[in-house]
Amino acid sequence: MAEVAAAGGAGPDVNTTGNPTEMAMAYLQDEKTDGDIPDINLGELNLTTDEFILDEVDIHIQANLEDDLVKEALKTGVDLRQYSKQVESELQRIEQASIKDYIKESQNIALLHNQITACDSILERMEGMLSGFQCDLSSISSEIQTLQQQSVSMNVRLKNRQAVRSHLSQLVDELVVPGAMISTILDSPVTEQGFLEQLHELNNKINFAKELSFRETLACSDIQDIVDRLKLKAVSKIREFILQKIYSFRKPMTNYQIPQNTLLKYRFFYQFLLANERTVAKEIRDEYVDTMSKIYYSYFKSYSGRLLKVQYEEVADKDDLMGIRSCRHPLHGEGQLTEERRHNIMLCFFSKPSLKSRNTIFTVGQRGAILSPAELEGPILVPHTAQRGDSRYPYETLFRSQHYALLDNGCREFLFLSDFFMVTGNSALDLFNSIMGKTLSMFLKSMSTYVSDCYDSIAVFLCIHIILRFRAITVKRTIPALDKYWEAVLELLWPRFELILEMNIHSIRNTDPQKLGVLDTRPHYITRRYAEFSSAIVSINQMFTNEKTHTLLGQLQVEVENFVLKMAAEFPSRRDQLIFLINNYDMMLSVLMERAADDSKEVEGFQQLLLARTQEFIEEILSPPFGGMIAFVKEAEALMEKGQLDRLKNDEARITQLIRGFSSSWKQSVEAMSQDVMRSFTNFKNGTSIIQGALTQLIQYYHGFHKVLNQPSFRSLAVRSELINLHHLMVEVKKHKPNF
């Protein structure tokens, strides 16, 4: 529409407000009457310019010739002048048609122009309105920012006022002393719950008043006087109550644990005193320490003294060592085996161990049960009850009862001190030692006296392991109060145990076999003592092993083995020597295996010694009846290995004598050998094993005898027919095996 207006404005005589059809016709008329041809800028197609380049013309001509329409025109032989006129007329026709369409739609175009003009005015008014809105919004935004700043300022003032209100409210509450607090502190007993609650409130007010006094708050002076008087009254009542409970401990036959439990319920009383009246708190603490120290000392001194009255009357002395001969020993007295000595032997082997007999101080017996959990933490002994029943106990039982009472009371006291007096670490340990130190010193002194004259090594060793187990209990309960005491006790017991063990080692080393009376192939009392003692120590030492103990036991074992060899050397015949060695090795091994582990060094050592001596003894008892055959078999087997068996060809008479001698006497020899073995060994099981081993060895030798006579060198001997069938011999030998 703007283009139409511009076109209409090109002619000076055209009336822009007239009919649109007339305006269009006037434009066409002007165009027809205008004969001037405007200058046309042909650009690169202007052939009249000086800048024309023929090469470029050729390129354009070549490009136009490649056009499809040009090719078609050239191909059909069209006249280009005629074709140009045709195109021009066609363009004029199209132009006339376009003008008509334009004229036809002129009214609509004019209407569209008017509408666009109206829209422009409306948009202009809307732009003004939006500009006004933008100005209004900018003013509103500034007002919102102002309101936001005012809101933040009001919020800060509100929080400040609330904070001030809370502080002032707390201040007013703490400054006010309610009448209920005054009446309760003054009139109520300290054991009532209300007194305890008001005491907490009073403590808070005292602390608050101290804080205000540091800040120099004037309002503090208004309540300071009444708070101080209430504090003095509360301190007085609390002091009287706690001292009364402490004094109640001193009454005879009083179970002090009950007042202690009562004090624990009111542990805040001491906390209040410690915070507000340290002098009174120290007085109460000192009074408690003094009272409990005397109570524990008196109780344990009396209890220990009464325990000693139920100890075995006869205890081990310096002569009760393994290598020192006991004149009352039933097995090694001089003279004939009388009926009385037989009775003593039976008592020695089958009676229960008792420290009333000196010969049993090397046997643990039932004494080791003291280390079982049921016995270790069982009820303590009641001395007067034991006295009425005429009961007597070994030292380790009294030791266990005494120290379990100490353990129980010590752990309880340490927990009470930590809880009631609010102490920890070294402070708690110092407070505990101030109470129990005198009692512990008495224990150590008494134990030192006992240990210095003690020769019962099993009792000392049991006491050591009792302490080790009690120490483990305190560690489990996380009570370090008795740790130093346990160490002090062990420092007393270990050296004494090692000394007694070394004394026993020296006693065995210095024993003279020629001064021990009549020789006897049965187990010696020294080896029995060693076996019982060693098995006891090994069994006790299993849980808390000690290398020093193992070393000393190893030295003791070496001395015992040397002693057995020295005693065996006193026998004139090798047979009696072997019987003595086997009996003693077997006895020691049997006793050790009852208590010690099968893989212990002691058990393994004696097993090897017993096996070697048993094999030698079997050869020894087979030699008298079958020595000729055995010697022939060994000689023949040696020659067979060298390929020189023909050297025995000329021994036909010897072979004949061996075959006929064996056939005629082997049954009687086996029977006599069996009886002799069973008489020689005190352990029937061991004797049976030796007989079986001897018969097995005999069959092996006879089998070797058969094997030698089956060689080509001896097959022609007529006496071979008199050989006993090997299978028949095995059947007959089985009949002679003893059954026990």
Overall outline: flat
Query: What's the average pLDDT?
Result: 82
H-E string: HHHHHHHHHHHHHHHHHHHHHHHHHH
* First-residue to last-residue Cα separation: 143 Å
Keywords: Golgi apparatus, Protein transport, Transport
Main location: Golgi
Subcellular location: Golgi apparatus, trans-Golgi network
InterPro entries: Vps52, Vps52_C, Vps52_CC
Features:
single chain, mainly alpha, 26 helices, protein transport, transport, Vps52, Vps52_C
Q: Would you kindly provide a written description of the structure presented here, covering whatever features stand out?
A:
The structure is a single chain. By secondary structure, the chain is mostly helical. The protein has 26 helices and no strands. It is flat and about 170 Å long. It is found in: Golgi apparatus, trans-Golgi network. This is Vacuolar protein sorting-associated protein 52 homolog.
List the helices and strands and how they pair.
Blueprint: H1 2-8, H2 20-33, H3 54-65, H4 68-76, H5 80-104, H6 106-175, H7 179-187, H8 193-214, H9 220-248, H10 257-265, H11 267-276, H12 278-308, H13 339-350, H14 373-376, H15 383-388, H16 395-420, H17 425-452, H18 457-476, H19 483-509, H20 525-540, H21 547-569, H22 574-595, H23 601-642, H24 652-680, H25 684-709, H26 726-735
Helix pairs in contact: 7-8, 8-9, 8-11, 9-10, 9-11, 9-12, 11-12, 12-16, 12-17, 16-17, 16-18, 17-19, 18-19, 18-20, 19-21, 20-21, 20-22, 21-22, 22-23, 23-24, 23-25, 24-25, 25-26
GO molecular function: syntaxin binding
Main location: Golgi
Domain Vps52 C-terminal: 290-618
